[in-house]
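job 3f2a | input accepted
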Amino acid sequence: MGQKVSIDLIDKTKDKLSDMVLEAKSRLQDCFYADLRVAVAEGQGAVAQDGMMKSSIRDYGLSYGLRVIAGKQIQAAGYFGQTLGAADTDNLSEVIRDGLSQAYERAIASSRIKSEKKSHWQTLGQSLHSTELAPIEICQDTIPGVYQINPIDVSLEEVSRLAQEVSKAVASYDPRVKINQILIETSLIRELFVSSEGANIDRTYALTQGLCAVVAVGNSGIQQSHYDCLGHQRGWEILTDGIEEELLRSKPFMHFALDLAADSVSLSEARPCPSSGKEVVVVTDPHYNALLVHEIIGHPTELDRALKLETAYAGRSWFFRNLKENMLGKQVASPLVSAYSDPLLQGYGHYEYDDEGTPVKRVMHIDKGIFCGFMNSRQTAAILGVSPNGHLKATAASFVPLIRMSTTVFGNGERDPKGILSEVDHGYYLVGHRIPSISESRENFRITARKVFEIRNGELGEMFRDGGIMANTKDYLMSVDAVGNDLRIYSIFNCGKGQPMQAKKLGNGGPTVRAHARLVGGKG
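job 3f2a | predicted structure (524 res):
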């Protein structure tokens, strides 16, 4: 009979699991490396729609993932992972030991096949090489969770009550609000990483989120559907009290949801945004730039994408054609533009070590207009001959980790945002983000905003709906002529990549930016 699954399970098994992985290299023939990830989560969630409860759940998660690098002539990686249940807790070490054997056999099979193809495929076979991992500092660390109210101490009744109260408030805000849905979840997660190199990292973190979606119908005759997320690696307190940090701020969830309802109602009366036949001056706010930097900087700076390892599922990168033809060291943006990814920034994208135990560091992608580099893993870092920077992550321990964004942002500027707007004789101000449409290599984009305001003589005028901007990525970045000092980070809860799909929570953001682009909308 299995015991109750809780994050304390790690305490009971971590020494035995660490020893198992440490011994793998000497116990398994031709094994060069092994690592193990174990994750345990406890939490609850609730969904309400139009003031009525739809569902609620209090549950746990338990999973593990293994990687083994082995072989004779060519060393190759083998992976194995599983999602487990309460019945597996009493014999967790034996279950994982069986998984280790599976990962090892896959590595040996891959090594054998690659060795055969390398000798038979002649010129093409020369592209097959051993899996190499760039060296890192080997760390042992324990990282506690940060919260005021422990998510597992919150009752399911309290979670359900808040979801229903917020949904009722949104439903009664205005008769033009026709549909709303509220989702709340809060959990505590504990992750263990151990490797045959001696790494041992035990991390606990809280994860709390409120999601609101609203549909309003006004005199424009077209429904406006908007959704947004309030989230952080903190406890229940962020929903009841809000967030007040240097770069990450939000009202309590009730006020957050009502603000979204107010936007939806006002937009349901707004005219469709016009389209410009040529480039115009556009000023984008930090919330809009969270999605913009995600799409045109974040994804194309994931090195597995740039090296064509994820082309079938995620596309390529305009920053990197091949090892000889790429944008490294070249100007790709105005000197006012900098962009970077930093896992140490607070929010959804925060962590100290990635899923192969690499200590994280800030990665400059663009430094004063010059392209600098990519998010990487130990394997892709070895290919380019650079240092690993800690961006290999999986959304569940049972999945194979991929190179993913942590917190990717446009860097702060020096200008007052109000001054940036006041200098515009005629242009448009884009507030909030909605829907992206991006070319396969990210060299072109079209991204819609929640609201678009016309700017005349430095003042905001009419508000439009269903509008956005379209541009060539490099041309847009080169046209930036003002950057604000109001950097903010926003929670992104649904960044998808991989097959099977891994939907990751992360952070994005930026300050106010002024540039040139074509305005596109629902009215020609």
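job 3f2a | The chain is about 25% helix and 35% strand.
job 3f2a | closed
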